[in-house]
């Protein structure tokens, strides 16, 4: 049962071949076996079994509540779920229960999903790996010595190991696209406004952080996106030949050769599918954004810590230092940051005449789980965001993007991303499906069955 995706589960429920309670118990058994190894779940929903029992009664009566009735789901721990903490990796927040669901979570409940619990995240979800002082590191099911990336590491580890059917995460600078690439999944970073947010934790990254689906199959991705966005379920339709800009490298930023080879295979797969692929440079100057990127989270943390001193007192020292730097920046600097963001959005409008842009999701393959970032890429020293150079600009521009496993990849999965103009979520999903490597179970998941 744990190997079935949500689409298959719903079909089995409708045919009376499976029961949501049995599926719930199967996944809880998986969590009991594998979560001590992976540390994907950091909290379990107190009424999950009762939710599964209610779903079972509805299916027996032939009256399912919604398109996810009885499907087990994990929610990233920076999203609010009523009756549970949204710890966000912080010890003080881990002791506070939220009174209400954040809007995307409320939509999950309305659709009948069984929320199993919360997925681990680095403190305040502002880094590209998953570890914190409160819960410790999350590990990659393809190699538990390595990170699944971040900040959605708990969600992707759980979905890839079969601890749940699908997950809901956030992406503020690549936090869906890079982790799904490290674990062989598919994940959608919606464009601004595609998934509404309200009633959650403070936003630290301006309007960059969006809520999106994580899944093992494109069918599930469409299903979950329809629930979160309120749109009708997108069905795969043939698309005419598209013009795609393929950007392998960004200026002098290094790229792991294995990822470069996977990128070339993806270019070939898109060409073989009939699309016009043009390899070249990204026609954007990202330097002005890169110069101020770190200040965005610093300003956000400074404002949050001033409003909630208890959270600040419990935060790891590096985040208190970030907030201190942010508090010392002038208001004019925030306006300078905004002016650079708006200029980038203007420059990217229309996607330079292309239908989509293909890029790697990350410049590096996964690194040790207890380290914040790889120290080197292709023999060159890099800083904390050296692996993340391909993703943040997409958030700043507010554009939709989809992360997917590169075709022909053996061993550890390698992620690619396709970026499109505003409103292109369905097109990107259809396009990625034609060239993505199908999901394959990590040995850890199969050996524990």
Which outline best applies? globular
CATH classification, class level of the largest domain: Alpha Beta
Spatial gap, N to C terminus: 10 Å
* CATH homologous superfamily classification of the largest domain: Amidase signature (AS) domain
Number of strands: 13
Compute the average pLDDT: 97
Main sheet makeup: 11 strands, mixed
How much helicity do the residues have?
25-40%
Strand arrangement across the biggest beta sheet: 1-3-2-4-6-5-12-13-9-7-8
How does CATH name the architecture of the largest domain? Alpha-Beta Complex
Q: How would you classify the helix and strand content by structural class?
A: alpha/beta
Describe what is shown at a glance.
The chain is of the alpha/beta class and 449 residues long.
Structural features, described:
This protein is an alpha/beta fold and 449 residues long. The chain has helices at 6-14, 20-38, 48-60, 103-110, 153-160, 177-183, 218-229, 257-272, 287-307, 309-314, 317-327, 331-348, 392-397, 425-433, 443-447, and strands at 41-44, 72-76, 114-119, 166-171, 186-189, 210-215, 243-246, 276-279, 356-360, 376-377, 380-381, 401-405, 415-419. 54% of the residues are buried. The model has no long low-confidence stretch (mean pLDDT 97).
């Amino acid at each position: 049962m744990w190997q079935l995706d949500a689409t298959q589960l719903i079909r089995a429920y409708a045919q009376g071949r499976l029961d949501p309670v049995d599926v719930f118990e199967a996944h809880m058994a998986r969590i009991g076996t594998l979560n001590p190894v992976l540390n994907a779940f950091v909290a379990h929903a107190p009424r999950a079994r009762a939710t599964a029992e209610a779903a079972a009664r509805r299916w027996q009566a032939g009256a399912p509540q919604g398109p996810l009735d009885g499907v087990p789901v994990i929610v990233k721990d920076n999203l609010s779920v009523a009756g549970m903490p949204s710890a966000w990796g912080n010890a003080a927040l881990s002791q506070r229960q939220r009174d209400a669901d954040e809007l995307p979570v409320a939509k999950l409940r309305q659709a009948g999903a069984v929320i199993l619990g919360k997925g681990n995240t680095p403190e305040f979800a502002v880094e590209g790996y998953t570890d914190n002082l409160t819960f410790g590191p999350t590990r990659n099911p393809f190699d538990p010595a390595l990170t699944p990336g971040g900040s959605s590491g708990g969600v992707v580890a759980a979905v890839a190991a079969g601890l749940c059917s699908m997950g809901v995460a956030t992406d503020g600078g690549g936090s869906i696209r890079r982790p799904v690439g490290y674990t062989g999944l598919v994940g959608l970073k919606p464009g601004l406004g595609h998934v509404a947010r309200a009633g959650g934790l403070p936003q630290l990254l301006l309007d960059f952080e969006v809520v999106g689906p994580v899944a093992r199959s494109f069918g599930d991705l469409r299903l979950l996106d329809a629930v979160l966005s309120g749109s009708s379920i997108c069905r795969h339709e043939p698309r005419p030949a598209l013009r795609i800009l393929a950007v392998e490298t960004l200026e002098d930023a290094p790229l792991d050769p294995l990822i470069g080879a996977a990128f070339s295979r993806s270019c070939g797969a898109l060409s073989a599918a009939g699309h016009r692929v043009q390899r070249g440079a990204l026609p954007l100057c990202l330097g002005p954004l890169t110069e101020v990127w770190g200040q965005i989270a610093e300003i956000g943390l400074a404002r949050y810590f001033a409003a909630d001193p208890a959270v600040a007192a419990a935060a790891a020292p590096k985040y208190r230092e970030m907030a201190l730097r942010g508090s010392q920046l002038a208001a004019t600097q925030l306006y300078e940051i905004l002016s650079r963001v708006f200029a980038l959005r203007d420059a990217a409008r229309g996607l330079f005449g292309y239908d989509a842009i293909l890029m790697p999701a990350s410049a590096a393959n996964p690194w040790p789980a207890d380290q914040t970032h790889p120290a080197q890429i292709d023999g060159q020293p890099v800083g904390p965001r050296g692996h993340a150079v391909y993703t943040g600009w997409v958030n700043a521009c507010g554009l939709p993007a989809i992360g997917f496993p590169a075709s022909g990849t053996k061993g550890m999965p390698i992620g690619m991303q396709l970026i499109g103009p505003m409103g292109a979520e369905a097109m990107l999903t259809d396009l990625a499906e034609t060239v993505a490597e199908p999901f394959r179970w990590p040995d850890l998941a199969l050996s524990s069955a």
